[in-house]
Amino acid sequence: MKLKVLVGLSALLLSALSLNAQEMSDEEIAERIKPYGSVHVAGAVSADATPAGPRSGKEIYEQACTTCHAAGLLGAPTTQVAAEWQPRLDEKGFDTVWQNAINGINAMPPMGTCMNCSNDDIKAAIEYMIEGI
Q1: What is the pLDDT, as a whole number, of residue 34?
Q2: Are residues 60 and 128 in contact, defined by beta-carbon separation less than 8 angstroms?
Q3: Could you tell me if 76 and 113 are in contact, meaning their C-beta atoms sit under 8 angstroms apart?
Q4: Between vectors from CA 65 to CA 99 and to CA 96, what angle results, nearest 5°?
Q5: Which of 1, 5, 100, 115 has a C-alpha 20 to 30 A away from that of 48?
Q6: What is the 3-state secondary structure (H, E, C) of the chain?
Q7: pTM of this prediction?
Q8: What whole-number distance in Å separates Cα of residue 44 and Cα of residue 29?
Q9: Closest among 133, 39, 132, 109 to 122, alpha carbons compared
Q10: What is the C-alpha to C-alpha distance for residues 97 and 50, in angstroms, rounded to an integer?
Q11: 77 Cβ partners below 8 Å, 6+ apart?
């Protein structure tokens, strides 16, 4: 007896839900089932990661690099501090430092946190960070 009641209630609930869905427009249904967020896989290029256009090294730094490089977070060389940058530049050279920023090194992911930067943007940001050294 309980099983029949349970089956009956389930059928009634499904009927009500299907009637409700039939009354909704396609736009309302699309809005109701749209994703709440998205997932970004490190290293993957997202569809909206198009270059943002010409920006100065300072602008790129302020948007994407300052979090780690202003405070030296996780071993990042601090901006415009010669004692932290010069040994890297002397040992590896600018081009290697630049390629490490593009490809990622240690705790730094590829392209840092700038998913819409070009390689030249990364170069400009590094040039800003070592300015005056």
Answers
A1: 80
A2: yes
A3: no
A4: 15
A5: 100
A6: CHHHHHHHHHHHHHHHHHHHHHHCCHHHHHHHHCCCCCCCCCCCCCCCCCCCCCCCHHHHHHHHHHHHHCCCHHHCCCCCCHHHHHHHHHHHCHHHHHHHHHHCECCECCCCCCCCCCHHHHHHHHHHHCCCC
A7: 0.61
A8: 30
A9: 109
A10: 24
A11: 69, 84, 85, 88, 129
Q: What is the token pair recorded at 50?
A: 């198009």
- Could you read off the pLDDT of 35-93 as tens digits, one per residue? 777 777 766 666 555 555 689 999 999 999 999 999 999 999 999 999 999 999 999 99
Tokens 């490809």, located at residue: 103
